[in-house]
Amino acid sequence: MDFSLVSIWGHMGIIPKILVVLMLFMSVYTLAVMLERWLVLKRGKAASAAFAKLVDNEDPNLRMAHVIKVASDPTRGKYCFLGQVVLASLKEAELLTREGQGPAVIFEAAQDTLGRAIVLTVTQLRKRLVSLATSASGAPFIGLFATIMGLIRSFQEIATTESGGIAAVSGGIGEALIGTLVGLFVAIPAMWAYNFFADQIDAMTVELNSTAGRVVERLLRREFPTSK
What we know:
single chain; mainly alpha; 7 helices
């Protein structure tokens, strides 16, 4: 038997072929998720850094109303995660101020809203990582299934031909090799991508907590200088 990929594919059974096609689909989807998440994180970092340059400073003239206006600017787009969480917190503070609530209530509510906004943002950033984890953990088992099917075919051919030569088992061995190869081909990049993006999102979470918390607290202290 010719051990080229085309020849092996031609001798594979229907079930191993279905499993291989499924794993190749998982690979394509994994690559799409990797590209999409990379673009989101890249744009998010750039937009948040640009926003931080405008509002994360000691300028005494920088006030809550101005930051709300800057954060609400639609030209910043949906990737300015720092602007989104700061805006949510300051909007809550602005609402409570109009209602006549005391500084202590405003501080607490603004911090609570900021925390919830960060959690929601991080959840959105992580929403497609589960597909990477699924590919990383599931592809080897699917590949193992295809490998077992190939080994079963080898034993069947041995029983049929009553011979243990390479010609009798070559088809099944080919299926087994293809199943293992494709499973690893899908799983290894998916695992690497999951760990990479999880690390990037963890770092972004720390940065959001630090920068957003500092900006919101500084602005509220300027609005209520005698509150603390």
